Hints:
Structural class: alpha/beta
Number of strands: 8
Pathway: Carbohydrate metabolism; erythritol degradation; Carbohydrate degradation; glycolysis; D-glyceraldehyde 3-phosphate from glycerone phosphate: step 1/1; Carbohydrate biosynthesis; gluconeogenesis
Pfam families: TIM
Oligomer: single chain
EC number: 5.3.1.1
CATH architecture: Alpha-Beta Barrel
CATH superfamily: Aldolase class I
CATH topology: TIM Barrel
Order of helices and strands: EHEHEHEHHEHHEHHEHEH
Subcellular location: Cytoplasm
Number of helices: 11
Largest sheet: 8 strands, parallel, barrel
Low-confidence stretches: none
Bound molecules: glyceraldehyde-3-phosphate
Shape: globular
Distance between the termini: 14 Å
Amino acid sequence: MRRKLAAGNWKMNGTAASLAELEALKALMPENAPDVLICPPAPLLFRANEAARATGIQIGAQDCHAQNSGAFTGDISAAMIADTGASHVIVGHSERREAYEEHDSDVRKKAKAAWAAGLTAVICIGESADNHSANNTLDIIAGQLAGSLPDGMTATNTVIAYEPIWAIGTGKVPTLEQIVEVHDFIRGKIISRFGAEIGDMIPLLYGGSVKPDNAAMIFKAENVDGALVGGASLKAADFAPIISALADS
Ligand SMILES: O=C[C@H](O)COP(=O)(O)O
């Protein structure tokens, strides 16, 4: 049985005071809560791990460099992230792909760096609005999967997040049929490349405007094992109902 994961990506939001949300979230989470992951900005990682210790909430980073160390001003390595006590790192988020011109080959290297540091890589893929309108979604997804997933993926070192770029922060959400189509397609692709023992066990997350009022609809899809949530993960009161909807799915 695949594990369910509710992941929150705080993006460039929050200060130390925001870590109070972790305890608030724990208090609101159902007893049968799935795995919960919060990815705060890098300066909060150490303190977030401290604050999350008694809650069972896991902590992850939002990006890492592909190298372990070196002259890369402003960057952080997967080893440094692991040193904070974090368990996951997001790689290939569309905001990084767009703003920093990260390509599939960069994402692949970062995922391997994450594994080498003992972290689970949350590898993001997703098509642009133009590709969506041109009905190119599955071709784009196939290319991103082929390019971004390194050989060596196991049932436990990777989570894949499908985030249509046009749905991120826009309030637009694909229909359940569209979500089912893309997630079934991803499942089929990873099974055919990595075999059923691995491909069947990798959690697939949906991301893009997941809110308390649409989460139950999204989690109806058989191959949606959770969500990567941006805006609605910042406040425990918004994220907790999403976690409950996942627990009940
Ligand atoms: O990483 C999270 C996604 O980009 C989704 O963001 P959003 O929930 O604010 O649309």
